[in-house]
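Go through this chain.

——
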Amino acid sequence: MISRILAVVLPLFLIAGCNTPKPLQTSDLPAEFRNAGLPGVEKMQQRILEQTPPGTPIEKAEKVMSDNGFKIEKKSDETGAYLDCDLGPGGEYFGTKRWRVKIRHTNGIVDDVAVSAGANRP
């Protein structure tokens, strides 16, 4: 019994371990990062930074996020201007992720990216 489980599970782990992270691509974020937990937040931030590193024009950052399904609002607070990007699970099952990304910018140039995720509540 244990050998059967190992025969099925072990190859899956080996295959999963061979995959390298791919860059942010249109529409791959929602499915890939659901229920990913804290490591998912770090991966999400890494992928966004690969496409919109500090120094990127804010228009490009806005397009990248919009192309990936995020709803975007231009906002500002006492620390400056930012894009507030929201990718909700759209009424799906409890426990799925809602992604929030703040892309801070000065004079239209990206300064920083902050990512957070939370559970969808009924």
